[in-house]
Structure formats: C-alpha cells, structure tokens
Amino acid sequence: MEQWITDDYYGSEYNFLKEIRDTFDLPKSVRFHDATLRDGEQTPGVVFTKEKKVEIAKLLDELGVDRIEAGMPTVSDEDFEAIKEIVALKLKAEIMLFSRAMEVDIDKAVEAKVDGLILEVPSGYPRVVNQFPQWSFDDVIKNSVKAVKYAKSKGLYITFFPYDTTRAKPDFLEALYTAVVKEAKADAVAVIDTIGCALPQSIYYMVKKVRSWVNVPVEIHTHNDFGMGIATTLAAVQAGAQVVHGCVTGLGERTGNSALEQIAMGLRCLMGMDINLDLTKLYPVCKRVSELSNVPIPINAPVTGDVAFAREIGLGAKLFKTSPTTIFPVNPAMLGRTPRIVLGKKSGKDSIKIKLDEYNLSYDDALVAKLVNEVKLAGIRKGTYLTDEEFLKIYHG
What we know:
Structural class: alpha/beta
Oligomer: single chain
Number of strands: 10
Distance between the termini: 49 Å
Shape: elongated
Helix content: 40-55%
C-alpha cells in the first residue's frame, strides 16, 4: 500500500507528493501537551473541581499524552490542591504548570513538585502597549530573562511562552527568544497564536524563523477564532515544531484551543506520522470531558461528533463493512467507533433494507416501499432523523 492508504485511513495522494514533502522539515516525533485543565477551563462557564481535574488527568494519562498542564496555582487554593494531588498520582505524563513571570508563581510550582513550567509573558504589540502600558519592550525582555533564570535555578524545565506571538514585531521577537535561550537557558520556546489570527503559511514561516534563532525545541499553541487552529498546528509541525498544545474537544477561551483529538488524527492520517496516543480512547475521553465540562460536542464535530460516522442516505452504505474508507476518511474502528445508518427524510430503499437487516427483520419489496414513505414523512414531521426505536415502532405498526 501507498503511504496515504492503510487499513485505518485512505487519505490524499497529494499530501505525499515529493513537491509537497520536500517543503516539510518534520521532527522525528511529536509530543502532546494537553492544556485542558488550564486553558480548557478558561472556557466561559466551565468549572473543573479538584475531583474533576484529577479524573481528567488520569484519563489523559491513559490516553498517552506526554505532558499535562495541570493548572495555574495562583487561581485558587483548590486549584493548587488539585495540582498537588495530580502530582502525587505519579502518572506517566509529565506534569507542568502555567506560570506568570513572577517569583510567587515559580515558588508555588516548586512547592507542588511539578516537572516544569509554561512561563508566560506578553509579546504581541497590542498586548504590551495596551494591556501592560507600564512595561517597555525592553522591560519584557529583562523580566523574561530574570524569570526564566530564577525558574531554572529551582531545577524546573521551562517552556518560554510569549503569548500573542503572531502579533509581535519581528525584530522584538528575535531579541526576546534569543535572550531567554542564550542568557537564561530556557529549555524550549513556544509560538502562540493567541487569538487565532495567523494563516497556516504564516505559522510555518514563524516556526522556521524561530528555529533559526534558537537551538532548542519549538512548541506550537494555537486558537481557533478563524477555524484554522488545526491547520496552523499541522503547519507548525511541518516546519519542525516538536510539541503540539491542545485541549480535549477544543475547549478554551472564545472559540477554543485547537482540539487535541483533531490534531492527533491530522498528524496520523494526513501527514502519516506515528503518534503515541491510544486512538481508540480518543472518543471516550472526549465524551467524558464533555460531560464534566457541560459543553456538548457538536453532532458533526470531526472525530467525536455523533454523526461523524453516520449516513442518512443509503448510497454507499453497503460498503460500511467491506470498505469503510471508501465512505469515510478513516475507518471508524480506528477510533473504536461503528458506522451507522440513520433513517429520515433522505432515506431510500437501501437505507431501509440495511436497517431491517441489522435487526434481522423480514421484508419484501412492497414493505420496503411502504416503510420508505412512512420514514420520510416521520423525519419531516420530527425535523431530524429517527431513533431506531422510532423506526421499529413504524415497522411493527
């Protein structure tokens, strides 16, 4: 089989053309950094109690994420206690905190015994000028170097996180990244599209530039304000980013962070990369996080939507078992899911027959024609597709 064709997915040959792949500078592997417990909780209206945070951390660890961003310790005493309890679980995943460039935050991280910090400073021009008018751009660099040095002196792994990177001035960015790596010895740096305003090509360019300035791993953290969070994350990996940040189900401020499950499937199925997540656990983890956050998953959401692997029209449905990737981009079994026919206004004879066969029900052509008509009318009255129970009620009359 070709690289774009496996038992699990049938992608596009064009993704693997030499002219395309020659523009990539892929890392040998990609690590997953999950920010659901911090950035995900910043979704307006979402509250994760200590018990919920511990449960989600366990789920993420079972999924196979490499790093869990357990929270921001200065938000509340309960958050700090949750972080300490997660650390005490001794999970396989590394536990990191989100920290301001302040000693009080860094000292909290030391007290919690986490592995490292995502250490934030503003870098976007409007952030520095309007949100932090007391700081000059030189102050941002000086404060960043001071904070990273202090955190490193405490033995912490530091990912330097200059948020709103995509709205920062290029000369300032180069000076900032260079200073925190060369003077303060940051372990890694991130490119952050805080308000999701960059094109994939722009992120590709920026990651390449940052890698030319510093000799440490580059991480990518994007938001979805213009619906391009996944595209920009994949573009960053194509440019050599080694760590991808995401939130389960795309939780996050405003329109959300890049969805971890969609990043994973994009890397595996569109780019052909091996990843260390248990893909059969993506769906149940997303469903549980949706329940705990009280944020429903849209029915047509990629990977996890209720109808992502459902069809109301019968055309091609006979291939569900013999060739599912003819109908879907991935085999639903890859995610532990099952393709299904739902019945409604758009259903035809093939759909009805498939559903009848599912339940080992007898039929002839006349009955099928009658059921098609009744199902269509019922779907129109209901305004959506029927449940199987509703269809069986029609069948049994």
